[in-house]
């Protein structure tokens, strides 16, 4: 089945919200990593989300150009074709676009979707993230309103963030020394986000509750998932049950299963997975190189072993390792066996 249509993506979010599960949102930067995500989703009969950062787009466009837009379009178009082989739904998202690059990154991608729609094709993207959390909440909501209107015109869902995810990931707003209090979205913030955005179109919300990008030893990151419940209760208490947020969990690498599952009870329908899948991809490749050292390196005048220095040999191992980690994410988020591809 091809990439989800806008209506199918909305149905995916509705199903997750009503069913108490969430979709793994996998950061990809190549055809190999895209294939790893598609394999894992299909093997587990789970719908899912594949997303590209500006850095991934630059990487995919090649060393001579480093065009985030061009590379991102290449990755998205490739996913549309590759997804045709599978019987699950996959949606495409862009991750962490900061406000100062939105005009040069998001606008051309929204235009690319508009051109496809004009010719009767499916959206190139179903979801875009504008991460304006580095701004004041007032300024964050002003630019978020602007982009939500643009997205809504093309049946694209906008993901926004208030509060800061610590750590660093492809230029994401947080830093390793982000003050602790900035890592937690307040109830007032959540009310303000709803009031500013809900009339303009559908959006998802990355509210922060201590999240930090990267991977840390147990105890280093202090997650407080109850913040999500408090914010949801405040919003639905004031505006009714239909105001419940579709929440996004950023910085989830290294979280305990208990913490992950608790967020599902509070309306999380999407969890980003990047650091863990990067390691899961790289580790089998490192193993391959160490085990086959004399084959991949032409030592002491020898000729090596083409079968082990052929990039396909070790990239295949990386793809398998990454797919296995994504399968674990599907289990953690309770999305296994819940594809709605035959229902919509």
Q: What low-confidence regions span 5 or more consecutive residues with pLDDT below 50?
A: 172-176
Strand proportion, as a percent range, falls in 5-15%
> Which structural category fits the helices and strands?
alpha/beta
Strand order of the biggest β-sheet: 6-5-4-3-2-1-8-7
Report the helical percentage: 40-55%
Q: Termini, distance in Å? A: 11 Å
**H/E element sequence:** HEHEHHEHEHEHEHEHEHHHH
The tally of domains stands at: 1
Describe the biggest sheet? 8 strands, parallel
Number of helical runs? 13
Reported by name, the CATH topology is TIM Barrel
Round the mean pLDDT to the nearest integer and report it.
Answer: 92
Cα-based radius of gyration, to the nearest Å:
20 Å
Shape: globular
Number of strands: 8
The CATH homologous superfamily: Aldolase class I
CATH architecture level-2 label? Alpha-Beta Barrel
Write the layout of secondary structure elements.
Blueprint lengths: L5 H14 L3 E5 L3 H13 L4 E6 H8 L6 H16 L6 E8 L4 H17 L8 E4 L6 H16 L4 E6 L24 H11 L5 E5 L18 H14 L7 E3 L7 H9 L2 E6 L1 H17 L1 H4 L9 H4 L1 H22 L12
Parallel strand pairs: 1-2, 1-8, 2-3, 3-4, 4-5, 5-6, 7-8
Helix pairs in contact: 2-4, 2-13, 3-4, 4-5, 6-7, 7-8, 10-13
At a glance:
By secondary structure, the chain is of the alpha/beta class.
Structure report:
This protein has 344 residues and is an alpha/beta fold. Helices cover 48% and strands 12% of the residues. It has helices at 6-19, 31-43, 54-61, 68-83, 102-118, 137-152, 187-197, 226-239, 257-265, 275-291, 293-296, 306-309, 311-332, and strands at residues 23-27, 48-53, 90-97, 127-130, 157-162, 203-207, 247-249, 268-273. An eight-stranded parallel beta sheet has the order 6-5-4-3-2-1-8-7, with helices on both faces. The radius of gyration is 20 Å and the shape is globular.
């Amino acid at each position: 089945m091809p990439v989800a249509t806008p209506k199918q993506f909305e149905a995916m979010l509705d199903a997750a919200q009503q069913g108490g599960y969430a979709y793994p949102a996998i950061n990809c930067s190549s055809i190999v990593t895209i294939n790893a995500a598609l394999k894992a989703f299909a093997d587990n009969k789970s719908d899912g989300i594949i997303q590209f950062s500006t850095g991934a787009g630059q990487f995919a466009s090649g060393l001579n150009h480093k065009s985030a837009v061009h590379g991102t379009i290449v990755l998205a178009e490739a996913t549309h074709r590759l997804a045709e082989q599978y019987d699950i739904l996959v949606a495409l998202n862009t991750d962490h676009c900061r406000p100062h690059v939105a005009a040069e990154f998001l606008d051309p991608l929204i235009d690319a979707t508009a051109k496809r729609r004009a010719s009767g094709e499916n959206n190139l993207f179903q979801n875009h993230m504008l991460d304006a959390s580095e701004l004041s909440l007032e300024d964050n909501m002003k630019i978020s309103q602007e982009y939500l209107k643009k997205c809504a015109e093309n049946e694209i869902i906008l993901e926004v963030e208030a509060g800061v995810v610590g750590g660093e990931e492809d230029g994401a707003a947080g830093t390793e020394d982000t003050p602790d209090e900035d890592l937690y979205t307040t109830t007032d913030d959540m009310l303000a986000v709803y009031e500013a955005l809900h009339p303009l179109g559908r959006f998802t919300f990355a509210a922060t509750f201590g999240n930090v990008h990267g991977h840390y030893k147990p105890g280093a990151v202090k997650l407080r998932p109850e913040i999500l419940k408090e914010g949801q209760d405040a919003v639905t208490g004031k505006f009714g049950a239909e105001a419940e947020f579709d929440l996004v969990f950023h910085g989830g690498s290294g979280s305990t299963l208990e913490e992950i599952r608790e967020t599902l009870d509070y309306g999380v329908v999407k969890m980003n997975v990047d650091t863990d899948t990067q390691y899961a991809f790289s580790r089998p490749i490192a193993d391959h190189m160490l085990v086959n050292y004399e084959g991949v390196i032409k030592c002491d005048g020898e000729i090596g072993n083409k079968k082990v220095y052929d990039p396909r040999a070790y990239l295949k191992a990386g793809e398998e390792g990454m797919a296995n980690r994504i399968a674990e994410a599907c289990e953690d988020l309770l999305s296994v066996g819940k594809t709605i591809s035959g229902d919509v």
